[in-house]
Structures are given as C-alpha cells and as structure tokens.
C-alpha cells in the first residue's frame, strides 16, 4: 500500500513538473522557479484567464478585424451566412458530386442569358441598355501570336 502511494506522488510530481515546463517561458526549470517566486499571482492569473497561457486576447490571435469577428461569432448574421455558404458548397461538391468547371460554366451561361434578356427588355420598358465596355485588342501582338503558333517563329507573316 505504501508503494502505491509513493508511485502516485511520484506520478503527480512528474506531471506537475511537465505542466510547469509547458507553461514556463524558458525551458529551464530554474528560470521558472525564479519567475514564480517573484510574482506568483501573475502566473496564476495567466493560467486561469488565458487558455494555454496566451498573452494576447483571442480576438488579436485571429488577426483582429472582420475575420476575427466572423470566427468568434461577434456578428452572428455574417457568421451564419459564411457557415451556410460553406455547407452549401460542401453539399454541392461532395454529396451531389458537382464539379467546379460545370458550376463556372452554368454561372457564365446564366450571366449571358441575363444580359441578353436585359438588353432585349430595355426596348419594352424604355430604359437604357446595360453598358458593356468595348474591348479593343492591338493588332501586332495578335499577329505575332498567330505567326508563332503557325510557324514556330516569332516573325509575323505580313
């Protein structure tokens, strides 16, 4: 019975030294003892009020600002929206086995159909048509790319 109590006390003291070393700033046990002797209340406060002995608040650990607010559920509507969106994407790709390329193509088709219907509906409702910027590509780089793909050289044919 005496052997059992000695092994328990040795096991507890061994665990205490491990916990002390994990919570100390320096790996040497002498520096931990000197720090705890100087100000024992500060080390107790950090162990009680800070998870894993952190010195910064959790909001600062997550980087502060909007991302930290989302992670910590400070703005519940945005956090819920992110959670619902991530769940919908997971369901779409994992459970339904939808592919990213198919999704991008369907979104582009819907965008083109919307623009087509909007531009045609403007004549009936007397509104201005959507402004689609005009794209002008310079002729020389296109000719060089065409010549390179045709001959394998960078000289234009013209």
UniProtKB/TrEMBL annotation:
Membrane spanning residue stretches: 78-93, 99-118
Swiss-Prot/TrEMBL keywords: Endoplasmic reticulum, Membrane, Transmembrane, Transmembrane helix
GO BP, one annotated term: response to bacterium
Annotated localization: Endoplasmic reticulum membrane
Any single GO CC term annotated in Swiss-Prot or TrEMBL for this entry: endoplasmic reticulum membrane
Superkingdom of source: Eukaryota
One Pfam family per UniProt: Reticulon
Membrane topology of the entry: Multi-pass membrane protein
Residues of the Reticulon domain: 67-158
Protein name as annotated: Reticulon-like protein
């Amino acid at each position: 019975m005496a052997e059992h109590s000695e092994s328990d006390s040795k096991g507890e003291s061994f665990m205490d030294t491990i916990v002390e070393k994990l919570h100390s700033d320096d790996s040497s046990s002498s520096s931990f003892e000197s720090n705890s002797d100087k100000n024992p209340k500060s080390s107790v406060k950090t162990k009680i009020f800070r998870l894993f002995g952190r010195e910064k608040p959790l909001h600062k650990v997550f980087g502060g600002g909007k991302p930290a607010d989302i992670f910590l559920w400070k703005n519940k509507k945005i956090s819920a929206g992110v959670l619902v969106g991530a769940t919908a994407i997971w369901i779409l790709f994992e459970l339904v086995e939808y592919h990213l390329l198919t999704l991008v193509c369907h979104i582009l088709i819907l965008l083109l159909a919307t623009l087509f219907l909007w531009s045609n509906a403007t004549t009936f409702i007397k509104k201005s048509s959507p402004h689609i910027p005009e794209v002008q590509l310079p002729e020389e780089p296109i000719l060089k790319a065409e010549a390179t793909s045709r001959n394998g050289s960078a000289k234009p044919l013209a």
